[in-house]
Amino acid sequence: MFGILKSFIMKRRLLTIATTKYRTIRKNILYLATLALLGLAVACSKEGEDNIQPTDDEQIQDYTSFVIELEKYRTPLPNVVSGYFDQKGYCLKMYEHGTLLAGYATGERIIAANVDSIYIFSDYLMGIEDTLLAIRYKSPFVVKKYRKNIFNVSENPLAIYVNKQDSLQYPH
């Protein structure tokens, strides 16, 4: 009788061990399948700025463009020029915008695909002697690809003086 009971208990233990191993293997297979699907989803998704969703006031378009605006009650900016720095450190001219009046914006301008940030330059009338100096707004305006970028000069108040003759400081 003990032999039959002992045999029954052994079979029961083996069945429990087999069931436990089966459950563990099944969990591992589900875990690996989940990881594979997650990896596939990440690999197939779009990367970078093309995957950025526009806000309510931004619309995706086939090209990248920008306008420069100056809020009301600001002094007009004479001889506004936009430019960017290339990989060698030279400042390259994009557009000459003329005088920017308070409360107005420049016309929409197309941006080349390789431009990630734009610097705004202007003339500045200094002092009693009416000395005209060139300035560059210190921080660049970051370009959002495939959008109409609106750069408000009033939001970037810090400027530095630049030499118009130096192609490392002013766009040519």
Instruction: Pick out the low-confidence regions.
Output: none
CATH first level of the largest domain: Mainly Beta
Proportion in β-strands: 25-35%
Principal-axes geometry comes out as rod-shaped
How is the CATH topology of the largest domain named?
Immunoglobulin-like
Total domains: 2
Distance between the termini: 103 Å
Secondary-structure element string = HEEEEEEEEE
Approximate helicity band: 25-40%
Q: Give the beta-strand count.
A: 9
What is the radius of gyration computed over CA atoms, rounded to a whole number of angstroms? 32 Å
By CATH, the architecture of the largest domain is named Sandwich
How would you classify the helix and strand content by structural class? alpha+beta
Oligomer: single chain
Q: Counting H and I runs of at least 4 residues, what is the number of helices? A: 1
Summarize the structure.
The chain is an alpha+beta fold. The protein has 1 helix and 9 strands.
Keywords:
alpha+beta; 2 domains; 1 helix; about 25% helix
Structure description:
The protein is α+β, with helices and mostly antiparallel strands and 172 residues long. The protein has two domains: 45 residues; 98 residues, Immunoglobulin-like, CATH 2.60.40. It is built from one helix and nine strands. A hairpin with a 4-residue loop joins strand 5 and strand 6. It is rod-shaped. The chain starts with a helix and ends in a 10-residue tail after the last strand.
